[in-house]
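Subject: two folds for Thursday's group meeting

Dear M.,

Sorry for the delay on this. The cluster queue was jammed most of the week, so I only got both jobs back this morning. I'm pasting them in the order they finished. Each block is the input sequence followed by the predicted structure tokens. Could you check whether the formatting survives your parser before we put anything on slides? The first protein is the one we discussed after the seminar.
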Amino acid sequence: MDTNRTEDASDERDCCDLEHPELNRPMPLIDQEICKRTAAIFRAMGDASRLQLLALLAKREMCVTELTTGLSDNLPAISQRLKLLRAERLVSTRRQGKHIYYSLADNHIASLIENGLAHGSETDCTFCPTA
């Protein structure tokens, strides 16, 4: 059993360049700072409560009162989540009179939310251990 895994790993290491012509072409690396920034974005979205908040904002801009009602949560909790999401530039604000309206920062964030939720709702994913 374990020997099969060792043999499989050994087979992968022993393949030659002829089997992988793409290895002869230089592969551009993604900048380390971009990777760090992207990891921070995924960490900020990686909490279910913050993701629910972002999903609401994907529908339309809302003030804190609307978010509190929509999520059935308390104002301090919502405000704390919004603070973190603003710090990671996932959410932007617009002031109108006494109200501050929150929205997703841009279409990239909207796409991430939409695609993540779509993938999370799949029940026949062959790669998912729960399927």
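Second protein, same layout:
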Amino acid sequence: MATKDTKKSAPVKVNKVVPKGRLYITATFNSTLASITDEQGNVLCWSSAGESGFSGSRKSTPYAATITVENAVNKAKAFGMQHMDLYIKGPGPGRDVALRVLRAQGIKISLIADLTPDPHNGTRPRKAKHNK
């Protein structure tokens, strides 16, 4: 019987310098997700409220969103990022927090875009009931 080597290797560090990128924030009622990409859309790093150590209803707080965005921005600074375009999606508590965190971290914002989808007429209504 062959034995497997269960020793994990250290993650490979990429020494890539990306001075400008995009920050995508998805702020739902239950959690906040932050992804940072380069200008072509390749994901460099990400963070979520769960990854930041929050669980349950604490993931949906503005404080959890603050920590989540801070973690993502700190990971992006390792790539040398100083300028970001900000794309926000969703109605959650992480919307306003993201701007404050970016300002506090000293990141220059050149674009703020709201990608929240608009509802258009919703689902089809139920069949009408017929009373006899």
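Two things I noticed about the second structure. The helical segments are 62-77, 94-105. The CA atoms of residues 17 and 33 lie 23 Å apart.

Cheers,
T.
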